[in-house]
Write a structure and sequence with these properties.
heterodimer; A: mainly alpha; 16 helices; globular; B: alpha/beta; Rossmann fold; eight-stranded mixed β-sheet; four-stranded antiparallel β-sheet; 10 helices
Chain lengths: 390, 324
């Protein structure tokens, strides 16, 4: 496995290098002198302008410029943003990224979980009336024109009913006297989510070896309750207590986008799970499992759904890959100031260093996600494990 | 005489399809005694597997048992609800399916799949006890203990089939059904598996129902046998009697269509036509359309299909007893 990962990493480096070169060349093809757009910023002092020009060789021919850019890139120097000058792309990204990740991590996990759950029930209840209706609904939400649907939801919940905020990720008036930046609240929310999922995962792993099914279930339930109690104490004590109202404000703003994207995104997973699982249910080992006297629920979850998981994970990984570029539309509609907006703005305003940095981030993200997908396959399907080693 | 473990009386089962009811099992009665092996033979589509599925009530959703009774160790199985049936399955009757290749879930370890069955029926047993039990079963069927931690795709076809036998024995069932357990295997492995089943059956004193289309295997494996045709039993009796003095025309043809290694050379006979469609209600003798030399009674459909005792314990359908 280790050898495989090293091999893949080397391949990925080559691919990423090509990606970088092509992106640079494409930006260079923009009419006008895209890379010295710097001139247009009136706030830039002349000596800073000259310094940047010299540092990044912006007056040099294309090939030399490209060389310099790539060398600088691997040194971790991405240049300076043209539009908000003293800031570097890294600063801009590290401000925006947590917002996008927080929103879309939650959306993806919620939508895949519900999609998988609903799909598995649909396959199990094949032919029933409820199956027909839920499948029809899923097909509707799978095919609906997303921007229209999102605007309709905004209109209903934000305007007509007034339950949820229209756009933005916080109420600025609440944050006037906030003792910290919104980024800090965001990153502590992310940390909290990660820790909770790790604890849940560890509890799952620890209880795996227990032979009695009922005590296994009870222990898992107990760990869930412990997590709830633990998070209650976490948010009501110490440093987290101060952040609590602000975190709550952000969470309140997240409800509508999470809801809308989930409604659109869950359907694909549900339909995919339904199809795969219906194939699996025809297999002989499902009959064997029934003959063994195993409960229906366990056959459904353990035998049928487990085997049907592979294509679902594939589609999950592909969704993860497109989180950042896929967030453009959603963030635009909900005016959520995340990576998607940064990407769009920087391209529209020809803020090339920022755009390049955003795109290379998307590239790294995609490559790493694919590697993770391949590794997770080998754990989900033991038949693949052998091939990847051989 | 040892006691009856399983007795099936007048079992009727049909599939409800769009083009009408398919009567797959018609008025089937037989019984299996403790430690006895019972063979069920017949051509494809004659209802052998449907009988097996009815015993465990694992038939497809559109299949209905319309009448009859299945009594296992004094307990009536027909009419039981799902949770009662789940207790009977594997613990009372277990089954070795045809095609062991697909009997294993490809993503779960073999040991875990056996463990799962034991856990369902004996939740109080510890992990170590279960492991020990699986290892002893593997030893019995000639498998290495390391197979516990293997995935199904890491085993050969023969090993999978051995493991399936171990799986079938894991809850010490009263009756084991072997539904064409050797169909997908080559002859050498077939022989090994048959010997394994026979050995285990004698060792544990199992009651075995052996289902096959291969009459030679039935002769080797069973004490009692029944010949099925078009959903009903046409001849039933001790295996040696059925082989030495076959009474029904279909049984005779079935025997004559199998080559014999010893004895005089005989031309093999073949049987033209196909079994009748089971959708229509068959009146009179179901075999007469294919009977090569039907008696007048048979041809004119004068006789009702009914098993008659020809000699003690040996019954045959009375329509075709006199046919050629």
């Amino acid at each position: 496995m280790g050898e495989y990962i090293i091999k893949r990493t080397l391949q990925m480096t080559v691919v990423f290098f090509l990606f970088l070169v092509f992106s640079y060349l494409l930006f260079n093809a923009i009419p006008g002198n895209a890379f010295s757009n710097l001139l247009l910023n009136p706030d830039l002092p002349p000596d800073a302008y000259n310094r940047v020009l010299e540092l990044y060789g912006l007056d040099k021919p294309l090939f030399e410029r490209l060389q310099l850019y790539i060398v600088n890139f691997f040194k971790g120097d991405f240049g300076y943003s043209y539009k908000s000058f003293p800031k570097t792309p890294i600063e801009l990204i590290s401000e925006r990224l947590p917002r996008t990740l927080m929103l879309f991590a939650i959306v993806n996990i919620v939508s895949f979980y519900t999609g998988f759950f609903i799909g598995k029930i649909l396959a199990w209840r094949r032919g029933s009336q409820s199956e027909t209706w839920i499948t029809l609904t899923s097909v509707f939400s799978y095919t609906v024109f997303y921007p229209w649907f999102a605007l309709m939801m905004l209109w209903v919940f934000g305007y007509k009913l007034g339950w949820l905020p229209i756009g933005k990720f916080l109420y600025p008036e609440k944050w006037y006297d906030a003792p910290f930046d919104s980024d800090i609240v965001f990153s502590s929310m992310i940390k909290f989510t990660i820790v909770v999922s790790l604890i849940q995962f560890a509890a799952y792993l620890a209880t795996r070896g227990i032979e009695s099914l009922s005590s296994r279930r009870n222990l898992r339930f107990a760990s869930l309750i412990a997590i709830f109690i633990g998070s209650y104490f976490y948010w009501n004590n110490g440093a987290a207590l101060i952040k609590k109202p602000y975190a709550a404000d952000i969470a309140y703003h997240m409800i509508l986008p999470v809801m809308v994207v989930t409604i659109v995104a869950f359907a694909g997973t549900a339909l995919l799970t339904r199809t795969t699982m219906m194939e699996v249910l025809k297999e002989d080992y499902i009959l064997t499992a029934r003959a063994k006297g195993i409960s229906q629920k366990r056959i459904r979850d353990r035998h049928a759904a487990r085997t049907a998981l592979l294509p679902v994970v594939t589609s999950f990984i592909f969704t993860i890959v497109t989180i950042i570029d896929g967030s453009v539309l959603t963030e635009q509609i909900f005016s959520w100031p995340g990576m998607g907006q940064l990407l769009l703005q920087s391209v529209l305003e020809e803020d090339i260093p920022v755009a390049m940095a955003c795109f290379s981030f998307v590239g790294v993200f995609a490559l790493v996600a694919h590697l993770l997908a391949d590794i997770s396959y080998s754990y989900l399907d033991p038949r693949i494990r052998i091939k990847s080693q051989g | 005489m040892s006691k009856e473990v399983l007795s099936v009386k007048n079992l009727n089962m049909h599939y409800e399809t769009l083009s009408g009811d398919v009567h797959a099992v018609k008025d089937v009665s037989f019984s299996v005694k403790e430690g006895e092996s019972f063979g069920l033979v017949g051509e494809s589509g004659c209802g052998k597997t449907s009988v097996a599925m009815s015993l465990l009530q694992l038939q497809a959703d559109n299949a209905k048992i319309s009448s009859g009774s299945i009594v296992l160790d004094g307990v009536e199985l027909v009419g039981m609800n799902e949770s009662e049936l789940r207790k009977v399955r594997w613990d009372g009757i277990s089954i070795v399916f045809q095609g062991a290749m697909n009997a294993w879930n490809p993503v779960v370890k073999v040991g875990e799949q056996i463990r799962e069955a034991i856990r369902e029926h004996y939740p109080e047993k510890s992990k170590a006890e279960n492991t020990e039990k699986i290892e002893s079963l593997f030893k019995m069927v000639g498998l290495d203990a390391a197979v516990i931690d293997r995935f199904p795709h890491e085993l050969s076809g023969g090993m999978k089939q051995r493991a399936v036998i171990a799986l079938a024995l894991s809850c010490d069932p009263k009756v084991v059904i072997a539904d064409e357990p050797t169909t997908a295997l080559d002859v050498v492995i077939q022989d090994q598996i048959l010997n394994e089943i026979k050995k285990v059956q004698e060792l544990l004193g199992l009651s075995l129902i052996y289902i096959s289309h291969d009459i030679a295997v039935i002769a080797e494996m069973t004490d009692q046998m029944a010949v099925m045709y078009a959903g009903s039993i046409v001849e039933i009796g001790p295996t040696d009697k059925v082989f030495s003095t076959p009474k029904h025309a279909y049984t005779r043809l079935l025997l004559e269509s199998t080559p014999s290694v010893v004895g005089e050379k005989k031309k093999l006979r073949s049987l033209d036509g196909e079994p009748p469609s089971l959708i229509n209600e068959i009146t009179g003798c179901s075999f007469s359309p294919r009977c090569p030399d039907p008696s007048d009674d048979c041809k004119n459909q004068n006789k009702e299909m009914k098993l008659v005792e020809i000699e003690p314990g040996h019954f045959a359908d009375n329509c075709c007893v006199d046919c050629g």
